[in-house]
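Now for my pick.
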Amino acid sequence: NQVIAMDINTFGKYSAGIWLTDEESSDFEKDYVPLLAATINNAVAKAEISLSDLKMIIPHNVNLISWSKLAKYIDYPLSSIYLANVSKYGHCFGADILINYTDIQNKKLFKKGDYYLMATVGLGATFAAAVLQY
């Protein structure tokens, strides 16, 4: 696997994390999908490919609703976002993507040359996406 490109953005106005005010929480909820979409689109642009070149997005397991909204927002097939483990394990913080990647490897879902993207959001709020090639 080779890292082709990545994009990382921290939005300090949400740095209080779980201690955000109700208004700040509401703003974060509104901004979440557009900020994640921008991060994903920036990583893909840096890789000089298009979203349609991605075999799959490997997400953190925050919830199905957020990924469904993101898929619509970026016009990417929800079926190509690996969500099999959201209901199985829930959100395992930093391990989500690694658990999902291991599952994908065990199922042999990638072939040589496939592009994929790993995406995550952390409290504080840091958004990150990396394009890799298998």
About this structure: The chain has four helices and four strands. The CA atoms of residues 113 and 134 lie 5 Å apart. Helices lie at 22-46, 64-74, 86-89, 96-106.
